[in-house]
Design the sequence.
């Protein structure tokens, strides 16, 4: 399989993904794996799509995932409503950014560290 696109609960700056267990009580998780582990293990390219922040406003793009992992270091691209990141051997690279946000504003809502390419990220209009 060349590529798979998955929703995620969390993704970290090393390309690890957590998408199969939701915490519902202290130390307890509601499982819902489906075939996600098979998909991330069998695809050459894994694209994670998720909201940038959780309902409490915390970043879902983390330095290290806090939930049980679906795959370690498997994600190559992260897409949120605010930005698109490429994952390489050194971490995250900001490839695209919504036109109504600055890089500094994105850093303030992103737990993970990321680099900005020379010339900056491509900008896009969300249509909002």
Sequence:
């Amino acid at each position: 399989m060349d590529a798979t696109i998955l929703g995620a609960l969390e993704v970290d700056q090393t390309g690890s993904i957590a998408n199969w267990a939701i915490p519902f009580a202290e130390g307890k998780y509601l499982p819902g794996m489906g075939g996600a582990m098979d998909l991330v293990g069998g695809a050459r390219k894994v694209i994670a799509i998720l909201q940038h922040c959780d309902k409490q406003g915390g970043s879902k793009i983390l330095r290290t995932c806090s939930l049980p992992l679906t795959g370690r270091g498997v994600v190559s691209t992260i897409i949120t409503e605010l930005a698109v990141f490429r994952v390489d051997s050194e971490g995250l690279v900001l490839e695209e950014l919504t036109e109504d946000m600055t890089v500094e504003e994105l850093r303030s809502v992103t737990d993970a560290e990321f680099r900005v390419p020379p010339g900056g990220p491509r900008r896009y209009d969300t249509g909002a």
About this structure: The mean pLDDT is 87.
